[in-house]
Structure formats: structure tokens, C-alpha cells
Amino acid sequence: MIVCGCDLGSATGKAVLLKGDKILSWAVVKSARNPEITAQQVLEEALDKAGLVKSEIHYVVGTGYGRTGVSFIQDNMSEITCHARGAHWMHPNVRTVVDIGGQDCKVIALDEAGKVLEFGMNDKCAAGTGRFFEAMARVLDCTMSELSTLALNSANPANITKQCSVFAESEVVTMINNGVKAEDIAAGIHDSIARRIHAMTYKIGIKTDVVITGGCARNEALTKSLEKQLGVSIHQLTFNPQIAGALGAALLARDRAEKRLIKP
Predict the structure, then answer these.
(1) Model-level pTM greater than 0.85?
(2) Residues in domain ATPase BadF/BadG/BcrA/BcrD type (predicted)?
């Protein structure tokens, strides 16, 4: 029985095709203006990779900002539940998930079974999100990957004090004009985001193992900065951490499809 999880975020759409406990294929595409278009594109790419057609999918669960109103999605779940389920499947010892998406970030506490115990979320400001990184990379005239590399080469990180993304951008421009090295500014940007995420953990605490999911999870400079702020080692996931939400949705789709099969 083949099922699908579809994570429709603000920056990218992700889809995972699952059969039993095996990932058949996955895909990531840039978000279109309409979530329906994003969903169709990412599903078609995942189907092509697996050599399947849409009619072979038994159940589809959606998550992410664009999950409602997509024609072929049969059920939807919160991103928090899906990221927790996906991260736990990839790394069963995980107890804390830090998810950094395009326009929000979350810290999620899990129990041994992968059930969500508590969470903290920043969804009212772009600071600490992928959008913030994009804005800062634009100001420094570099790519996201180059921003991380710059930060790793810093010996004296700058102190970015503004939490608002707009004010932080102005602060960075002032530093550039004052001759502060680009690598020190880049390191300061990563440290400011790590401090913001650390503040979100005060309420729920940090229990190991800790993993990062979302599009920023492969930012090595951010991982190192977070390890310093949180005082723990961060474990690398075995699969692409960007698909954790879609994978969690696929696992929930499998649960629902199995319930439908045994329903009298």
C-alpha cells in the first residue's frame, strides 16, 4: 500500500512516497504562488522518481501552511505533529526537535514514542527563520551556502543586537559601512538566531538527543552556533532533514490507510 505525505511550506513544497516502512521516493520544489500548483508539481516529481502514477496512492496527508484546500489531500495535520513523527522515525532517540522553516521556527519536546509533549514557536516575526537568512545573505551579497562558510571562518563574531529582521538588516548595513569583516557579521547573524532559539527552550527545556529539521538544518554554521548556545551536541539525521515534515505526514497517512482497511 503506497501513501504520500505532502508538506507545503512558504518557501518549498516537499513530498514523500512511502510503502510500509520504506521510502520509495521524495521530492522538494520551490513554492509556487498557489499551494495547489506546488502540491501537484512536487507530487509529480516524487511519482516520476518512483516510477508510479497518482492512482496508485492509497492515502495522502498534507501539512504546512498551504495544506488546506489542495484537491488530492485527504486529511491534514499540524507541522508540529508531522515534524515530530518524521524526526522520530529517522532518529528514534530524539527528544528535542528544532525545526527552522521559511517563516517560522519551533522547538518540540518528544517522549520515547515520538509523541509531542510540548512546543515553543516563533510565528510572528521573520527573525530566526529561513527568510531572515535569505535577507541577511542578500545584504552581504552572497548565497546561503556562502553565508554559512563565511561564519565558519570568523574568529571574532559581531554582536547583532536587534531581534526584528528589519532592524537587524539595518544593523548589518551599518556594520558593513563601518568596515566590520563579512565573516564576523555572518557569524554574528548565526549567533543571534541561535540565541533566539535558545530563548524558546526556557519553557520546555532541552533533552537529548537533539536534531534540527527544515530547510536550514544543513547550515553547518547554525548547527555549531546552536550547539554552543544549547550546550549539547546536535545529531545529524540519516535522511534529508528538509523532508521530515512530509515524512511524518506520510507515516500518518499510512496509519489512516491501515485503519480504513481494517474498518468493518
Answers:
(1) yes
(2) 5-253
